[in-house]
Every structure is written in structure tokens, then in C-alpha cells.
Design brief:
Distance between the termini: 32 Å
Number of strands: 14
Mean pLDDT: 93
Strand content: 5-15%
Radius of gyration: 21 Å
Largest sheet: 8 strands, parallel, barrel
Oligomer: single chain
Length: 407
């Protein structure tokens, strides 16, 4: 199902403003404050925490959201996961979390990165999002993914090991979900779902149903992660926006061109980078070496957990992704990440220069996400947000204007 492109609102921009990056956001996957971090720290599989420690992450999210709201950031993106006694990703319901965070803030957007659709009934997810959209005045941004943890997806009764079955289920669920959002009344007859069933109801034969309520803000802005080329064509041709996180420069370049080209085949003419968001690692210090020294154990803690899931998205000089023949196949170091321009480390002037390089390369890309490295304590991350807002954001007047005029 192909959707009409979302209207371009030009949030907060005045005539003549030439800024490309107009939104600075944060990606917080829901880690608790971890102890003994770094490559030589506690092995990821050995981490186990109490329920009280897991609860801390929700109040951390509130505190970070309130600070972001005060400083003029655009959106706090969070991630759905289950069963994580290791403490890296402990938010099981993003719509519920985002609706609560909206009551704790004034204007910050709250993004779902991502609702793992195979673990949901699509009608239930559509209804929950519609309620959040109504109750928050459109401040919750919708996002979906196919999942990558076998422990959670398979435990919910959906396929993960069988990639083809996972993809087939996801795409049928998306068909149902979009009908819920976009059609006044509808029916669906597929492999997994028959809605409505052929049953009598109050004296007539049931033929169609209406999702009650539907979101007020339509068409719904939908985001999906871009983890492989297989995802690109599906989302680009349907008007779904794509999120790239911690990719090397060459991988980002490949993805951005492929997304734009796939969108063009569906009649969507986009600037390079349009409808894409870029997630980057960040640490600001007086020098690059000092930043690397401080953030290195936090970076390494991330890859201890995520690398086994395939989340090393770097390429060699020939453009070959790491892990493919001829390219590196090892855990990345932070210096690798800096060289790949996936991690920005150094004084504000260097951070600004790196962001300007991305802005020049991708004239349509308006949102950058600061990735909260999983090992970094909340107090330290909040201080980084303050420094970034004070020293870096003013170099991007469109972002400052968006912040000052947001409803």
C-alpha cells in the first residue's frame, strides 16, 4: 500500500532561512545506569539487575525529556524491548511511555524507535497510537520495526529466525495498520488476519469495520529503521521515513542514494537525505583525544551488547560493509567510529564542522539524533546535552528557530 507523501510543514523556519538541519533529537534505547563498563568490564551476558533498577530508567527518561524540553531539542526517541535483565533496553511499551512523558513536558516530541510490529496485533497498536495522538495533541511520533531479538520476538509467538516469515508477517500487519489509520471503514483478508470475520452482528452480516478512534493528525508520520538494503525499497516507495543510526560515512551515502532512487520509482521526488534522520555518537571535550579517552568505555559497552546482532554498519575504503569478504570483521574501536564519522568527538568547533559536512552532503536531511552511548551515566549525558545546546546548536539557526517557535 502506497501512501501520499506527508505535507512539508517547514517547522519553525522563516523565509530565507537556509538551514538544512532544523531538528536535534536524542535516541535513548532505555538502558539503566550500568556499572563496570567497557571492553574489560562485566560481560554483557552476565548482567542481571533488580526490578527496582529497571524502574529507574523511566524516571531517567523523564529527567532527560524535561531537560531537552528546556534546551530546545526536538524529539526524544526510545526503543521497545522485552525480557532484558541485562539492563540495556528496558522499555516494553513506547506509546504508554511517550504519553506519560508528554504530561511531564511542554512541547518536546516523543518518538517510537521502534514499536516491534510482529509482537503486536496491528489493530491494537493502531488504536493505542490513535489515543496517544489525541491525548498529547500530536506529540507522539509513530515508528515500526521488524525486531531483531529472537528471545523476545519468538517468545511473543512471531517468527524471527525465519526472516522470510518475519517479513511476510510484518508487511501484512502494515497493510492492516495503514487501513486503520487511513480508511474510514475497511476489511482485510490475508494469510494471518481476516478482519472482520464472517460472523453475524446485531441482525446483519459483518462486512467492514471502523477503527475507533483514528489519529487526528493524518496522514500519520511513520518511521522505520534502515538496517539493510532489503528495507529500503519497501519504506521509500510507501512514504515511510527512514532512520540511520551510527552508520559509517560510506554506508550513509549508499543508503541515502538508494532511498532517494527507490522513492523516485514510486513517483516521490526527494532531495538527497529528505525523509531520513541520522543518528550519531557524540562527546564534546576540549580536544578530540580527551573526548575519545572519556567516551571509549561507553562506546565499547555498546558494542559488547549490539555487535552480536549485526549492528556494525561501517564500510572499508572500497565501500564494502564490514563483515563481508575483504572488509574488516571485528569489533569496532571508537577510533574506527571517529574515522567513519559515525562518532563525533572533540571540541564544539570540530563537532560543528562535522555536522556541516553532513548538512552539505545531504541537503534534504533535517534531523540529527544524538545517540546516548549505553555506558554513559545519566548525569554525564545531560551535561553533554547542555554543552551541545549552548555551543553547537546556535550554529544551526533553523534548529534554534524551530525550538523557539514550537507549540
Amino acid at each position: 500500500m502506497t501512501r501520499s507523501p506527508l505535507p512539508r510543514t517547514g517547522e519553525g523556519l522563516g523565509e530565507g532561512d537556509t538551514s538544512v538541519i532544523t531538528k536535534f533529537s536524542v535516541l535513548y534505547v532505555g538502558q539503566i545506569e550500568l556499572d563496570n563498563v567497557g571492553m574489560d568490564g562485566t560481560p554483557a551476558n552476565d548482567r542481571r539487575y533488580s526490578n527496582e533498577r529497571f524502574a529507574e530508567a523511566f524516571f531517567t527518561a523523564r529527567d532527560v525529556a524535561q531537560l531537552m524540553d528546556q534546551l530546545g531539542y526536538y524529539c526524544l526517541w526510545t526503543a521497545e524491548h522485552h525480557f532484558q535483565h541485562e539492563g540495556y533496553e528496558v522499555f516494553p511499551n513506547l506509546i504508554l511511555l511517550s504519553t506519560w512523558l508528554a504530561t511531564q513536558t511542554q512541547r518536546l516530541k516523543l518518538g517510537c524507535a521502534f514499536n516491534v510490529l510482529p509482537m503486536w496485533h496491528p489493530v491494537r497498536l493502531a488504536e493505542d497510537y490513535a489515543m496517544a495522538d489525541i491525548m498529547t495533541g500530536g506529540r507522539v511520533i509513530f515508528g515500526v520495526g521488524r525486531g531483531y531479538h529472537t528471545r523476545e520476538v519468538e517468545s511473543f509467538g512471531a517468527p524471527m529466525l525465519d526472516n522470510a516469515a518475519n517479513k511476510e508477517l510484518f508487511e501484512e500487519q502494515m497493510d492492516v495498520l495503514l487501513k486503520c489509520f487511513d480508511q474510514e471503514s475497511w476489511s482485510h483478508h490475508g494469510k494471518q488476519y481476516t478482519i472482520p470475520p464472517a460472523v453475524p452482528y446485531r441482525g446483519y452480516d459483518l462486512k467492514e469495520v471502523t477503527c475507533v478512534p483514528r489519529p487526528i493528525n493524518r496522514p500519520v508520520e511513520i518511521w522505520q529503521p534502515i538496517a539493510s538494503g532489503r528495507t529500503l525499497e519497501y519504506i521509500a516507495t510507501r512514504g515511510i521515513k527512514g532512520m540511520m543510526t551510527l552508520n559509517g560515512w560510506k554506508i550513509t551515502e549508499q543508503v541515502a542514494h538508494a532511498y532517494r532512487d527507490a522513492a523516485a520509482t514510486a513517483g516521490r521526488q526527494l532531495q538527497l537525505g529528505e525523509d531520513l534522520a541520522l543518528g550519531l555518537g557524540l562527546y564534546i571535550a576540549d580536544s578530540r583525544e580527551e573526548a575519545i579517552r572519556i567516551v571509549e568505555p561507553y562506546h565499547d559497552e555498546r558494542y559488547k551488547w549490539f555487535a552480536p546482532f549485526g549492528f556494525v554498519r561501517y564500510a572499508d575504503e572500497q565501500g564494502r560493509p564490514w563483515g563481508t569478504p575483504g572488509a574488516p570483521a571485528r569489533l569496532p574501536t571508537l577510533r574506527d567510529g571517529v574515522a567513519q564519522k559515525a562518532w563525533l568527538c572533540g571540541p564544539p568547533s570540530e563537532i560543528i564542522a562535522d555536522l556541516m559536512a553532513y548538512q552539505d552532503a545531504y541537503p534534504g536531511m533535517d534531523q540529527v539524533l544524538i545517540h546516548w552511548a549505553e555506558g554513559m551515566p545519566p548525569a554525564e549525558f545531560k551535561e553533554q546535552l547542555r554543552i551541545f545546546a549552548r555551543e553547537v546548536m546556535p550554529a544551526f539557526p533553523g534548529a534554534c528557530l524551530t525550538a523557539s517557535t514550537a507549540p
